[in-house]
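Exercise: predict the fold of this chain.
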Amino acid sequence: MKLIHILPAMLLGASALSPQTADACTNLIAGKKATADGSVMVTYAADSHNLYGMLTHTPAADHPKGAMRKVVEWDTGKPLGEIPQPAHTYNVVGNMNEHQLCIAESTWGGHEELVDTTGNSIIDYGSLMQIALERAKTAREAIDVMTDLVDKYGYASSGESFSIADKDEVWVMEMIGKGAEKGAVWIAVRIPDDAISGHANEPRIRKVNLKDKENVRYAKDLIPFARKRGYFNGKDEDFSFADAFEHHTADTRRGCDGRVWTYFRRYTPEAEQYFAWVNADNDEPMPLYFIPEKKVDLAGMQDAMRDLFQGTPYDMTQDVGAGPNHVPYRWRPMSFEVDGKEYCHERAIGTQQTGWSFVSQSRDWLPDPVGGVIWFGTDDTNTTVYMPFYCSMTEVPAELQHGDINTFDMNSNFWMNNWVANQAYNRYDLMIPDIRKVQGDLEKKFISTRAPKEAQLAEMVNAGDIDGVIKEVNWEGAAIAKEATDAYRNLAQYLLVRFMDGNMKKVDDKGDFQYNEYGIPLYPDFPGYDKQYYERIVKETGDHFLIKK
């Protein structure tokens, strides 16, 4: 389950940066009638233990006849081949293009024998997304581009789920290769405008109305291929893509569908019953989408990306693994064995190994240069700050450009977020209030300033001043990235000073350190551990630490 995010070679002679792998991604989705402001929303967490968090950009370009585009495998950096360029390609910022089209993914693998065995396929899933963003204006066009590419040039990856959104609608498309046969089989389902959906490393499209051509699309040979390979033998109307091409085990339900379930349960009580599916207590699958009882807003979607199973049976702050500071993180590996039985750690949406993530908004009431915005953050979704960058941006802020995961950089947004987060991983319950204050103040500021800024930008677009819009979004994007990075550098230093040596220095209501009347720092507090932790010590050690009378 890997994703690579590099600056691909867009033009003949351009060189790509070093590849970086990512594991186990999460997508959350909301249709425009399911959101508070009418935007179509998609989220994406690119999770990896080796992925540097950066924002990529591909400029719009005109190409002469005969120009070729290099295709580089995102997982390895291996050159796969070249394909002809169209006459024009679009501006792409991260995972969104200038027409507000946004594409995200999560890998689920599927049957190993369906990975390309010919060695001739040249379109991997990462390139598939990027090329579609360069060439398509709408979600439906993107589906056409993606499926045409794999038909023509072969599919060089394993099973994938894609979220494909524009300013009007959002689709989930699932795809897998055909082994020794060229191309891929796939199915795409339009998520209703008033629904929420999601996927996280498990295929989720099951029985659908195959006759609904407006909302369901699929490869012509999908069901015949599944029959031929022995993956399905029922009636066409009972076909389930998810069950034909993947094995759904107890651990994948818990670690993958569990992340989607905990998003659903935030917005509809109906989702609660599907904990039984997630927990492998029954075999009734969780639906692809739900109609929420309350609208999804931007802050709520950002918060959903920080989910740690709070208030559920999987709450990561409550079991013994959380330790005395209620840390909602578990180091890898994910599973372990005791007395011949296999056990697991929880896998939440919020996780330490995220390289970068985003919440996208595509909005039909605003002109494209303003309507498409990526709220982008680096490192752990739980502690990151989501910064707004518009799809018309043409310059990546310095703090978000390419870097090295083995080289610490005080000016890197990714490294400053890591500095903050990795301190909190040791003393979570004590540090997270200080982090939430800085994080919350920044995000509230960024959100509250959008309406006047977007009114200004929309007015400029309507006046035909596109160059002015681009200049403004580049300037503001740079200012926002610098502000967030500077704030977290200061926060990291503050946390180090305040919690030095296991103590907790006294601060006032503003968070400023306190001194006595003579200018001497007040004596620190010793927060110690919670009562439950002390009880566990005695339970496990008996009288070993007992103070004798």
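Check your answer against the key: The two ends are 58 Å apart (CA to CA).
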